[in-house]
Design goal:
The chain is mostly helical and about 80 residues long. The protein has three helices and no strands.
Length: about 80
Protein backbone atom coordinates (compact mmCIF):
# COMPACT_ATOMS: atom_id res chain seq x y z
CA UNK A 1 0.00 0.00 0.00
CA UNK A 2 1.58 3.27 -1.14
CA UNK A 3 1.00 6.81 -0.05
CA UNK A 4 2.39 9.30 2.37
CA UNK A 5 2.75 8.74 6.10
CA UNK A 6 -0.45 10.76 6.61
CA UNK A 7 -2.34 8.67 4.05
CA UNK A 8 -1.12 5.46 5.68
CA UNK A 9 -2.09 6.73 9.12
CA UNK A 10 -5.49 7.95 7.90
CA UNK A 11 -6.30 4.65 6.16
CA UNK A 12 -5.26 2.62 9.23
CA UNK A 13 -7.23 4.89 11.58
CA UNK A 14 -10.33 4.81 9.37
CA UNK A 15 -10.11 1.01 9.07
CA UNK A 16 -9.59 0.58 12.82
CA UNK A 17 -12.62 2.76 13.53
CA UNK A 18 -14.81 1.03 10.94
CA UNK A 19 -15.31 3.94 8.54
CA UNK A 20 -14.91 1.71 5.46
CA UNK A 21 -17.44 -0.81 6.80
CA UNK A 22 -20.76 -1.25 4.98
CA UNK A 23 -22.39 -1.06 8.45
CA UNK A 24 -21.40 2.61 8.95
CA UNK A 25 -23.02 5.78 7.65
CA UNK A 26 -23.38 5.78 3.87
CA UNK A 27 -22.22 2.16 3.52
CA UNK A 28 -18.58 2.96 4.27
CA UNK A 29 -18.28 5.68 1.64
CA UNK A 30 -17.31 8.25 4.30
CA UNK A 31 -13.96 6.53 4.76
CA UNK A 32 -13.26 6.96 1.05
CA UNK A 33 -14.42 10.58 1.17
CA UNK A 34 -12.05 11.33 4.06
CA UNK A 35 -9.16 9.73 2.16
CA UNK A 36 -9.97 11.95 -0.83
CA UNK A 37 -9.88 15.03 1.43
CA UNK A 38 -6.52 13.94 2.86
CA UNK A 39 -5.10 13.56 -0.64
CA UNK A 40 -6.50 16.92 -1.79
CA UNK A 41 -5.02 18.79 1.17
CA UNK A 42 -1.70 16.96 0.72
CA UNK A 43 -1.66 17.84 -2.99
CA UNK A 44 -1.88 21.50 -1.93
CA UNK A 45 1.43 20.93 -0.10
CA UNK A 46 0.38 22.37 3.25
CA UNK A 47 2.65 22.36 6.26
CA UNK A 48 1.34 20.72 9.40
CA UNK A 49 0.06 24.05 10.73
CA UNK A 50 -1.63 25.21 7.53
CA UNK A 51 -3.16 21.75 7.04
CA UNK A 52 -4.89 22.01 10.41
CA UNK A 53 -5.91 25.60 9.82
CA UNK A 54 -7.34 24.74 6.38
CA UNK A 55 -9.48 21.98 7.90
CA UNK A 56 -10.56 24.28 10.74
CA UNK A 57 -11.70 26.98 8.30
CA UNK A 58 -13.44 24.37 6.14
CA UNK A 59 -15.33 23.06 9.19
CA UNK A 60 -16.39 26.61 10.15
CA UNK A 61 -17.65 27.23 6.62
CA UNK A 62 -19.65 23.96 6.61
CA UNK A 63 -21.23 24.84 9.98
CA UNK A 64 -22.21 28.27 8.65
CA UNK A 65 -23.62 26.70 5.48
CA UNK A 66 -25.71 24.22 7.48
CA UNK A 67 -27.03 27.04 9.68
CA UNK A 68 -27.93 29.05 6.57
CA UNK A 69 -29.78 26.10 5.02
CA UNK A 70 -31.64 25.47 8.27
CA UNK A 71 -32.62 29.15 8.53
CA UNK A 72 -33.93 29.16 4.95
CA UNK A 73 -35.95 26.00 5.61
CA UNK A 74 -37.43 27.51 8.80
CA UNK A 75 -38.38 30.65 6.85
CA UNK A 76 -40.44 28.51 4.46
CA UNK A 77 -42.60 27.34 7.36
CA UNK A 78 -43.33 23.91 8.75
CA UNK A 79 -42.87 20.86 6.58
CA UNK A 80 -46.32 19.46 5.68
CA UNK A 81 -47.13 16.35 7.69
CA UNK A 82 -44.35 17.09 10.21
CA UNK A 83 -45.57 18.24 13.65
Amino acid sequence: MGGSDLQKFARAWLLKNGWFSKQTDYDGRLGKAVMELVKTVEDQRHSGWSFGRTIQIFNLMILAYNQDVAARLRAKGPIPGNP
